[in-house]
Amino acid sequence: MVPDTARKLSEAGISVRVESGLGNTCNFEDSEYLDAGAEIIGSREELLKTADTVVRLNKPPLDEIGLQRPGTVLISHLEPFSDETLVKRLAESDIRAVSMELIPRTTRAQKMDALSSQASLGGYVAVIIAAERLDAIFPMMTTPSGTIQPARVFIIGAGVAGLQAIATAKRLGARVDAFDTRPVVEEQVRSLGARFVKVDLGEREERKDGYATELTKEQLEKQRQVMENQCALSDVVITTAQVFGKKAPLIITDSMIGKMKPGAVIVDMAVETGGNVEGSELNREVVRNGVSILGYANLSGRVPVTASGMYSNNIGNFLIEFWDKENGLLNLDPEDDIISGCLVTADGKIVNERLL
After folding, report:
1. What are the chain's domains?
2. Which pTM does this prediction carry?
């Protein structure tokens, strides 16, 4: 949480208590939180034992869950599909846990959608690190020694991260091609100045949460054949394809990498959920056949001031939206469409239908 959010919450009548040193990594001093109306507490144990609502960035350690009183609220990223032990512990401890990953992608919930805000930053950072790693420049330049042709960037997946990657690569002057399994996004891709690579996969639908549905084996093979040709032409390839709650699909195979130019760069944005690129490794750069494969986690964390500000706004908007001024508590009404989507545990049990 950044001081500006603490101020907005204080002005809304919410008592904010902040762990001492919270903002140090983003150069926010404790005094700035005090000026914003928050109280600084030196002991995390005291904070957890006395709070009505606990707000975190990442999921809590198991040994800290029991410090919260039964019935209190926990709001953070929880990785609910991959950490069954954590979810069960939260239920057993009677914690009302809100998973920021499960905020619905609806118009009303847009201001609380932390996944989209962080994915947008991730798409930006992916292009920046690719441009830094590539041994050539992105833009076309006319110089006394001749004209330098622009780098070719191929972006796979035109969701939030992919669209931001397209926009960033175009701003840097690259020639950008993009592909997505959903033909409906072609107009968005073209509006950003990129060419949409078409693959006939038959009828495709977008899920109501904004993610693409999984491809069949036949569709994946057809897609790979077209992508292999496009990858061979590209200086940079950025993959963003993920299926929410499941392992990321393998898109770039070793044989495809073998046909790319030596010195080319691939950024696998799905490396944390299994990876889109064969041979990519978490938090490592791997060189295969002269091609650099970058598999860095938490790309948005490389711009922490901006990332913290955006996440803090998402959290602040959630708290203010559901703050019951009369009773001075959060009102997590299970009949509300946003709450029913993101509330994981309550009343000593797992309540999220999607997770169940």
Report:
1. 3-102+304-350 (3.40.50.720), 119-302 (3.40.50.720)
2. 0.90
